[in-house]
């Protein structure tokens, strides 16, 4: 693909310094460069450094093939059948190295249409061709370790300055190629505070139903990324406005109460709490669950409703039974909190290991909804339970002064040795 000449910013024209790039990433880039290969910092790392943000990780692009990268690094492992990558490991850190790709020509495709996708993902190309394959212009900026310059083939610098999310190519075409790009557009908009290009907005409106064709496992991971990046509330709200939420989450409809709760969950994550999938899953369904519980009086009925909500979702997204069980426990805990203290089985309930985490969720819920029984009531009960169950520093001695008798008696089948047998 040939476009206009790239915009190149020399070292004096941009703020990125090598000191901002990870030490191991620099090692990889310099070795590639010394061996005669191109070595670029690519993708979100360049974008974040230009925005004065700390990148989550650094990715390297090169014209070296995966096998050539592997020969250069003993600590390199090739991964991915669909998209072949090199992972260079430094202890617990992995530097991902991708060979520049391009779109294949019609005549290059295999005869079997089933092989087209896999083949197309592994046709190597030039940096310019690779840039035009990427999703959004702000993610297609390159930092060249040889000259310390920024290379922009697609107008990403201009969009970065305008704080705009724009697809590379026609949005309808790019979203049809990979519908998950629509969700990522909303995510970047929320994370960076950028606006969506009008053409991208129109593209999402027209292509929203196609998100249902994406692999459930991929959607599940993208959903957890929203929680990790503290943008679950704004992204899912925007998805609903574009008509994408129901096809995205297998019929899930959301609602203002859910978005308000998710906003509290995002703030909880921002405070440093790592989001667990079961907690996130329960927060998605808590509002419809408690709405359905208004006429429910027994835990058995509440369990039935929780299963009705969670089971189809977990089956569609292949969520493990253990995670579904934990999410259900959190929902049932909130049902019991709402009923108030004094109910049957309270002592066992307050001792249950999931109860404190359930109270965390109920506390977030009480911030966005008026409940007759506030979270503080249960916080006091749990605090009193902890104090009463704490062991005393100096337990009193037995009244008889004797050692406690060992229960169970002598073990069966064990006979005391006689003097004769031991001699």
Word description of this protein:
With 423 residues, this protein is α+β, with helices and mostly antiparallel strands. It is 49% helix and 9% strand. The protein is built from 20 helices and 10 strands. The strands form 2 sheets. Strands 1-8-7-2-3-6-5-4 form an 8-stranded mixed β-sheet. A two-stranded parallel sheet has the order 9-10. Strand 7 and strand 8 form a beta hairpin. Helix 14 (277-292) packs across helix 16. Mean pLDDT is 88; it is low at 415-423.
CATH architecture of one domain: 2-Layer Sandwich
Strand order of the largest sheet: 1-8-7-2-3-6-5-4
Give helix and strand order, one letter per element, not per position.
Answer: EHEHEHEEEHHEEHEHHEHHHHHHHHHHHH
Secondary-structure class: alpha+beta
CATH topology group of one domain: Beta Polymerase, domain 2
Q: Tell me the distance between the termini.
A: 94 Å
| Averaged pLDDT | 88
Overall strand count: 10
Quick recap:
This protein has 423 residues and is an alpha+beta fold.
Describe the secondary-structure layout.
Elements lengths: L6 E3 L13 H12 L4 E4 L1 H7 L8 E4 L3 H7 L3 E4 L5 E6 L2 E7 L16 H5 L6 H7 L7 E4 L4 E4 L3 H7 L1 E2 L5 H7 L2 H13 L2 E2 L1 H10 L8 H13 L3 H10 L3 H4 L7 H15 L6 H16 L6 H18 L4 H19 L6 H6 L3 H14 L6 H15 L29 H4 L1
Kindly list the characteristics that best describe this protein.
single chain; alpha+beta; Beta Polymerase, domain 2; 8-stranded mixed sheet; two-stranded parallel ribbon; 10 strands; 9% strand
